[in-house]
Amino acid sequence: MDVGGPRLVRAREQLRRVFVDGMSAARSNCAADIVVEGRVQGVGYRNFVQRKALKLGLAGYVMNLRDGTVRVRVEGVREAIEELTRDLTKGPPLSRVENLGVTWRPPTGRFTAFAIRYAEFDS
Fold this sequence. Notes:
Layout: H1 5-27, E1 29-39, H2 45-55, E2 59-64, E3 70-77, H3 78-90, E4 96-105, E5 114-117
Parallel strand pairs: 2-5
Antiparallel strand pairs: 1-3, 1-4, 2-3
């Protein structure tokens, strides 16, 4: 027998569902394209990004672009992506981040690890 009667039981169940649904939304996977501008090439920035992303359990890649920026494509838990973004504004000691743009995207599920890509300069 549950103390409080059927109304209290329903209210508890409703509250539990709201809490669990809210936690699931916060923990659900999402993705972001991040472009970082400033002194971010030739200073260990990609290695910095990879270390931080792996520590946070994120998947995707980082690469230098021809225009001197760095592109980060990342998938995982939104809270972790937001934490990575905060870290990216600081960067490694020799870097100087002047601007950071984030575009949220739906996740693709294509990535299983976080890698450094070199393809932008290959062609």
